Amino acid sequence: MKKTTTAPAPSPAASGRYTADKLTVLEGLRPVRVRPGMYIGDTDSRGMHHLLWEIIDNAVDEAANGYADRITVTVCEDQSFVVTDNGRGMPADIHPDKKISGVELIFTQLHAGGKFDDKSYRISGGLHGVGASVVNALSEWLEAEVCRDGHVYRAAFYCKEDEDGTLIPGAVKRKLHSCGKTDRHGTTVRFKPDRRVFSTVRPDSHVIAQKMRELAFLNAGVTFVFTDERRPPEEREQVFCYRGGLSDFIRYNNSGKTPLYPDPILIDGAADGISVQIAMQHTDAYTESIVSYVNNIRTVEGGTHETGFKLALTKVLNMAAREAGVLKDKDENFAGEDFREGMSAVILIKMRDAQFEGQTKAKLGNVSVRAAVETVAGEQLSRFVQNIRHADIVKAILEKAKTARSVREATKKANTIARQKNSLEISSLVGKFAASIGRDAAKNEMFIVEGDSAGGSAKQARDRRFQAILPLRGKPLNSEKRRLDQILANEEIRSIITALGCGIGEEFQLQNLRYHQVIILADADQDGAHIRALLLTFFYRYMRPLISEGHVYIGMPPLYRVAKKTGGEVRFAYTDEACDEATREMGGSRSVVISRYKGLGEMNPSLLWETTMDPAHRTLIRVGIDDVAEAERLVTVLMGDNSEVRREYIIQNADFARVDAFADKIGL
Ligand code: 0RA
After folding, report:
1. Model confidence over 31-83: pLDDT tens digits?
2. Phi, psi (deg, nearest 5) at residue 160
3. Is 450 a catalytic residue?
4. pTM of the predicted structure, to 2 decimals
5. Which of the listed CATH numbers 3.30.565.10, 2.40.160.10, 3.40.30.120, 1.10.3080.10 matches domain 30-240?
6. How far is Cα 459 from Cα 70, in angstroms, rounded to an integer?
7. How many of the other CB atoms lie within 10 Å of CB of 591?
8. Which CATH class is domain 246-403?
9. What pLDDT digit, counting tens, does each position of 578-595 carry?
10. 421-557 adopts what CATH topology?
C-alpha cells in the first residue's frame, strides 16, 4: 500500500517554485489517481463516501485528543462536502525541510508525517487513515480553511489539466495565505469527489447520518451536525450528541427489548498501551449482540478484542455463580454463551498499529489485544460483581444464564435423540406417529393433529403414500406457561424433531427435511390457537428456516356444512362470510340446512379427508416470516411471563373467523 515517492529535491534557487511544486505533486499523488482502488477500496458509492470518512476521521481525531467538541458535515447542492471542526486548526507554519506549509504538506504528500504528526497514535486506522492527500488526489477540487493564532488561512487545490491533456491531481491552485483575522480556531475542508474517478458522486444522506450517529456514540459529548442542503429547509439538519457515549449506544440498541437491569455496565481502562471501553446490558431477548470497534472502525468479524472480553465475562461470571451457590460442583461451569444470551455489548478499543485480517479485513488480529482486554474487563467486571449494591443485577444475569443453559442442554439432548433414530425407528419411537410410505421428501406431508380422536380419523383418512400423521395430545401442551426447555421435554415435540429429521438449533439442516409440508391441524378454539402458537414458537426458535423457507402451513378445517334440503348438494364453508355466500347461492336460508363443526374430532375420516386433507380441495395457510421483528414480538408475548397480554392475545386469535388477524400478526 505504501508508495515511496522519489521526488527529486531540486534546490529552490535552481528550479523555481512552480516546477518544484509540480514535480512533487506529479510524483506524489499520481499513483492514487492511477490505482484508486488500492487506497480506498472501490470507486463506487462506497469509495466515494470513503473520502468523506477520511476527512471526518481527521476531525474526530482532533476531538478524541480533546481539542474539538463540534464537528459539522454539510452536503451542498452541487454534491460537494464541507467538514468543519473547532479544533486547533491544521498547522499553518512552513515545514523547515520541505519549505511548504503544513496544510499543503498534509494535502499533497502521501502519508505526511514527521513534524506535523504530533499524535501519540493515529486513532483512525485500517482502510481509513489513508490520509487527506488521497482525498485531495481523488477530488475535482479541495479547499482548506484554517483558523488559528488569530488568523484565517486558506489554501486551494484542484485536479489540473496540462496543455497535453495529462491530469495533475491535487495540484496547488492557491498556496496557503492569510486572509483575515479571527478569534475562532478550527479547520474547514471543502471538496468535491471527482466524477472521472467514481461511478457515482451522489452522497447518500442516510449513510452519512448513520455514520455520524455511530461516531457520536463512540465519541461521548462531541456534537455532530449533519446538514443536507439538497433537502427542504425544515428537514435539513440532524444533530447527534450523546453525553452517555457507549451507554447511550447500548440503550439505543436495546430500545424495543426489555433490559434485565436499568443501566448498562461500563468498563473503561487501559493495559499495555491499549485503551479499552465496553458497555454491556442483558435483555430478555435470546440472541447476543456484540458490536466492536478499533479506532472508531467497526470490526464486523470480531477479533482478539472480542475474544478477550468474552473470556473475562465467562471467567468472572462463573466465579460469581460459584460464590452465589448457583454452581455447586467444583468442575461445573456455565458455557460462555449462557452468559451472553440476550446480552448487548459495545466494545471500543484504541491502539497503535491495528492489524486487520479476515475475509473483509474487518477482524482485529493483534494477539496482544486479547490479554489486554481480558485484564481490563476481568478486573473491572469482578469489582462490579463483588459490589454488594449490584447483587440484584448479578442475580438477574445468573437467572438468565440458568435458563439459557437448560435450553441449551435440552436442545442438545433432543438433537442426540433425533440423530440416534433412523426413519424406520420413528414409528416405533412414538407409537402414535404414522409415517408415510413414500420417500420423496418434497412430496411428503406431515400433519400435526390436535387430539387423539382427530388424530385417529386423520390416520384412517390419509393417503399413506405421502401423508404422515402425528397426533398431539392436547393436554401436555395446553398449560398456560411453558418454557422452551420444557417444550423440548415434551414427547410429541421430540417426535416432531425426529420425524422431520433435520435437527434443531445450531445443528438444524434443512436439506435433511423429510416432510416438506408441515401442516398444523388444530381446532378453532382457544386450545387450538394455543397449540398453533406453541408449535409456531417452537419452529421459529429452533427450526427457523422451516418457516422462512415456507414449509409450515396451517390447515383449515371447515366451520360449516351447508346442505341443500332437496337434491343433496353439500358445501363446506371455512369462514362466516363463505357460509353466508353458500347459503345465498343455494337458494337462501329456507332451502338449506347449516351445521357448525365444533371440532376436528367430530368429523369422520372421509369428511376430514374431503374437507381438510385432500390436496385437491383443502385450504392451507402458508406461514412466513415477513416481519421478523413482529414474529419475535409474537413469540415474546406467547412465551413471556406476562400472562395478561398472552391471554388476551390467545382469546383474540381464538377462532378461525379471525384467522386473518392471526395471520397478520405472524406475518403470513
Ligand atoms: C497536526 C498538528 C496540528 C493539528 C492537526 C494535525 C490537525 C489536523 C486536522 C485535520 C482536520 N482537523 C484538524 N485539526 C488539527 C497542530 C498542532 C499544534 O497546534 O501544535
Report:
1. 999 999 988 888 999 999 999 999 999 999 999 999 999 999 999 999 999 99
2. -85, 145
3. yes
4. 0.70
5. 3.30.565.10
6. 72
7. 13
8. alpha beta
9. 899 999 999 999 999 999
10. Rossmann fold (3.40.50)
